[in-house]
Amino acid sequence: MNSQILVDQINSNIDSLILNLKNHQLEDGGFKGYHLFDKISGIWSTTEILHVLLKSNPDLISKDWINKSAKYILKNQNSDGGWGFRSNGKSIIDITAWACLALSHFKEKEAIIKGVDFILNARVNIVGEDKGGWGLTSFEPDRIYSSWIAANCLKRLLTNFENFFSESKKKEIYKAINESQSWIINAKLENGSWSPLGDECSTITSSAIALISIFSHGEDPRNYRSSFEYIKSEEINNLWLLDREVVITQEGYELTQEWFTSIYCFRAYIFFAELEICSIEKLHLTYLSLSSLLENGKVKPSLEASDDIIWTIPLLLEGIGKFKNFITTHKRAYDDYLHQKEIHEKKKKKREMEELLKSSFPYPISQVYAAFSQEIDYHRRFQFLIQLYEVIIKYTSIIALSTIIALNEEMPLLKVGIENKFRKPSLGDFVAIIEAIFSQSNKISLILSPQTKEELLKRQSNFIDNESPKVNLNQILSEIVSLRNSWTGHGAVRSVYEYKVEIESQLPLLFTLLHRFKFLAKCNSFLILSSDYNEFGDGDIYKIRVFNGLQIFDNDLEIQKRLSEGQRENLIRYVYFHNTDSNTIVNLYPFISHMFCSSCKKERFFFYNGVKNNNLIVYLSFECGHTIEYDNLEHFKKRFNAVKIQI
């Protein structure tokens, strides 16, 4: 990933949010007041939505639905110049400031001047101490949030529409802004936090809003490192729990406020990131966590909250819009971070898969991978890579085939393929078995559980490289067969450098294949050492040898199903595959067995490799490379007869 891809993703999220907002506009031009299921418009929601949309995308001003919203706001201005939460509601400072900001995009001078007069008049607290800021109304104590949005509104209007105001009015506005910001600065507590009312009861939300306010008016974030540490200390997985605040007004009613705490903290982080107090990594991780709150154009204020509210949408829009601006202005630094992050994540995923290979994937696969990873000669290492692909594909196809035979599931397409290809199967034939069974079997899920065959077959991202195109299982297997056919055999010798480059390019595909077949690492591959037939108990006790990863260990297994050790006189042991989730056990013999290799005098895993003209079965060990010929064609015929396949 690079910064442009990230910006494109943000733009896609922005488009999704805007589309959802448009769907929640009501006939009167306003937007739903609080919840997405509301049937009445809200002035607060409409003003926030309109200002945020037009600030980030001024071209929207030509749209009819946008102008309809502006008319709704104008229509609902109270006689005192302010606006309420809904139509005919009591004028409130916060909503009036948002309304003036929204109407500023339309240059509605008369309405804006009235709104500014209301904001300035309401700064004087009628019933309590006047600290220099604003309360919800002139009857309420000064609040951090009200002071922030009122001062922000006045500053923006002065910057863009200075000619709207007389010299005396401008002086009054400057005085109000400066006094409110001085109050906020002086209200900071020793630990770097703020309370909603500037007293001792601090909250994360009020602290973040206070920082946004004073930084917007020129304060240096370097002087507020303790505030950054305070906010960071309250993180939970790069997000914050939402703050809920019960406001008891001077008029005696309770007003419950719920805050989108995480978005305000994120915006504060952006200010700190400008001066490298907050790292790009911290900012990026916070954005990713915020993205988890967004789904189908809906936004939750926290992981534990509901997504049926509208007011979170414009707040997230504004936050990620500012984040996009940060990325654009710090493109080189962000690209460097994303590049290093990508390298780190690829190494981490590679280590995760290597650990699974060492500890969990069945022994024939893990053993060949160990040989591949330890080989330093690139030509030999490439041969091990091809061998590893073969083992994964053959082992998986044998498990699938043994499962449907054990469950007596007949498959016409599989029958035709095996009858024609059994005596001398190619790697492509084993691939065909996988594709046929996983796409058509109704019972294969028993051995895959809890993984589903749909998950195994569908298009997925590359396990190592998420930027690569998504592919399905058939595409992965086809690419492997093509590689094997083009890089092996007569005339296929390449230079050492070519082998090195090809190995490096194949690792993402290899780990993607292993991740696709992750059910192999969640099951047991074992053979039986001895058995104790318990005639009166719940099941027979088997002493088994488990081959998971590179660790081989002995264990006991109690099961009602009767299993067999194998053929002692021929030194053949049966290999079983056990899905511990569904408790399904299938015998992989005669396709795979554990036999004594006469050449190296050790027991090895041997895979079915074909039939000779004298009807002897040829087995191949990928451990030592030796073959064994064994007269057990009748055993194959017996197994295949169970599913009406003739060989």
Please characterize this protein's 3D structure:
This protein is of the alpha+beta class and 647 residues long. It contains 22 helices and 16 strands. The chain has helices spanning 3-22, 43-56, 64-75, 93-104, 109-121, 144-160, 167-186, 204-216, 225-233, 261-274, 280-291, 312-329, 331-359, 363-374, 378-406, 412-421, 427-440, 445-448, 453-457, 473-487, 496-516, 633-641, and strands at 31-32, 41-42, 244-248, 254-258, 294-295, 298-299, 524-532, 540-548, 551-559, 566-567, 572-579, 584-587, 592-597, 602-611, 617-620, 627-630. Strands 7, 8, 9, 10, 11, 12, 13, 14, 15 and 16 form a ten-stranded antiparallel sheet that branches. Strands 1-2 form a two-stranded antiparallel sheet. Strands 3-4 form a two-stranded antiparallel sheet. Strand 11 and strand 12 (584-587) form a beta hairpin. Helix 4 packs antiparallel against helix 5 (109-121) and helix 6 (144-160) runs parallel beside helix 8. The longest helix is centred in the middle third of the chain and has 29 residues, at 331-359. It is elongated and about 110 Å long. The protein starts with a helix and ends in a 6-residue tail after the last helix. The relative contact order is 0.07. The mean pLDDT is 93.
